[in-house]
Amino acid sequence: MSALPEKGDDAKRPLAAAPGAPRLRLRLGSQWVTALVLVCALVIWQLVALAGVFPAFALPSPVAVWNAFASIVRQGYGGQSLSWDIGISCFRILIGFVGAIVIGVPLGLLMSRNKLVFDIIDPLLQFVRPVPPLAYIPLLVVWFGIGELPKAILILVGTIPVIIIGTISGVKSTPALRISVARTLGASNAQIFRKVVLPSAMPEIFTAMRVGIGVAWTCLVAAELIAASSGLGWLVQFAGQALQVSIVIVGIVIIGLIGYAMELVIRKIESLVVPWRGHG
């Protein structure tokens, strides 16, 4: 017969880890790895700059870039404050990107449910999608001038194909078994669409949004490089013409950080709207 456990055994037994503990440790570990990679990149960058592999004006050191950032935070650049350039670029992004979502998601849902609508819009979509954003800028400037409207339209035109295609893909990836079960339970077509198809498509729609925010920034910078007098793209272009590479790098880093922050916001909204989808 096995010996009965002693009274103090439960007290000596280690406590079980909380269900979320492994995931938390993994997340903290990945954050440390990311931080280590960034530190190593900065160290290598500083060493290459000190070694003089490239001229100082072509590859400024991280310290020089930081000093340039501090300078434009205090004094601005080209007659514009840094906060204004950041704010106007974010405003343009939000207008164009939100417009692409508001138009693209319903249009993608309609195209996935109605073959006639799909046959009408899909050729136009496939024609617009491969054309680089820079190709549209001369037309938009001629038609709408150099105000805010052409920039918003450029972002919308560049982003909306990604949103539409992601929405259609999400609807078509809905498992047929779910629809069959819903029909068996007596659900109407409207209920199936609202309760089965749309929730199944949401992960793909959010993935399209995450891809689309990067496309939106590409379109914005392209527009600001040519037809703008403010914004982060204009800052990069204006500093590049003056060979002030430190400020160019500052602009690039700010664009990257803001784009990454917007992507994280989309991830957070996705985790709230689509809680059943796993997130790393």
Overview of the molecule:
The protein has 280 residues and is mainly α. The protein folds into 2 domains: 20-53; 61-273, MetI-like (MetI-like fold). Helices cover 78% and strands 0% of the residues. It is built from 11 helices and no strands. The chain has helices at 9-12, 21-51, 62-75, 82-113, 115-128, 133-144, 148-172, 176-184, 189-226, 232-241, 245-273. The longest helix has 38 residues, at 189-226.
Helix/strand layout:
Blueprint: H1 9-12, H2 21-51, H3 62-75, H4 82-113, H5 115-128, H6 133-144, H7 148-172, H8 176-184, H9 189-226, H10 232-241, H11 245-273
Helix pairs in contact: 3-11, 4-5, 4-7, 4-9, 4-10, 6-7, 7-9, 8-9, 9-10, 9-11, 10-11
CATH class of the largest domain: Mainly Alpha
Count of discrete alpha- or pi-helical segments spanning 4 or more residues: 11
What distance separates the N and C termini?
Answer: 48 Å
Q: What percent of the residues sit in helical stretches (DSSP H or I)?
A: over 70%
Uncertain regions: pLDDT < 50 for 5+ in a row?
none
| Beta fraction | under 5%
The SSE order reads HHHHHHHHHHH
Q: What distinguishing features does this structure have?
A:
single chain, MetI-like fold, mainly alpha
